[in-house]
Amino acid sequence: MTTRAVHPKHAPQSSTPAPAPVGARAGRHVLTAVALAATVPYLALKAAWLSGSRIGIPDGSVLLEAGPFLTVANAVTLAMDACVILLVLVLTRPWGLRTPAWMLTVPVFTATGLLTPILLGFPAQLLVRALGFGDGPEAAAAREPFLDSWVFIVVYTGFTIQGLALAALFVPYARRRWGRRWQGVVGERLPSPTGVVAAAAASGALVLGAMFLYWAFGGTAGLDAEQGEAHSAEPAVGSLAHATCALAAGAGALLLARGGALRAWWPLGLAWVGAAATLAWGAWLLVASLGPQLGQGEGPSTAAQLIYAGQMVTGSLATVALTRFLISRRES
């Protein structure tokens, strides 16, 4: 009886992955508990507000007059954060490896996009504040009341922990399921249409990066009067985070499209994180700017709305290049 050698590329894949080492399983259990616990503060606050509670909302806050718009916004954002629980289960339970790819990658891509600027900006803002470069109590008191300061600390700390825990759970999951997609080098140049899309993404990223850097260093063009007067080190850090994400999206898309001997994992990571953050936050800010405006301000300027739309376009173009690269890896 003879046997035929099978090339590793065509070797059948076992439907049941090998069990993880004991230490890895223990670490996964800890990360699961941490990720789930990090959703509790935000979910509890949203549930309390939907039930009529005013916890964390000071007297005179514009939120008290928001009406149905705020109710809908609270319900939607509560549902979005509740999806983190389902996402954690998909990433940690055996049946999660059988979940259709699009049903996992779309929410993971969205979560990456929404959480990345927070992961980049919030700790830096805390550091800026600790060093005495943030808003002082006089500036805070002069602003129109919105939420108690502790609410932002609790909510964004929870988001930061969620982001770190989800990333730590997703990486080993993705390695087990799609590891071959980022092994080796980038390889051959992608077809010409993809190269054009990637170049457009890179061009848009340069424009966005320049605009966000301009705002970060004190520029006021394109901002409304309230935003211009409120400039400080803390919002500057946020602008730097968005600039970083946009530039990462453009650079990652361009590197994936041009091919070459670069290790595939890092331009793939740049494109994934940058495209997700730029697209998600552009969409989020644009939708918010088009909705009812709270308070007495006029809302974002037309220039700011164009920037938000530019984020959406740039993020979408980078996502197209990223998707085409992943398809090419599947076909190879």
TrEMBL record:
Signal sequence interval, chain numbering: none
Transmembrane segments: 30-49, 69-90, 102-122, 150-174, 195-217, 237-257, 264-286, 306-327
Keywords: Membrane, Transmembrane, Transmembrane helix
Ranges of biased composition (kind: Basic residues): 1-10
Residue numbers spanned by region Disordered: 1-21
Protein name: LigA
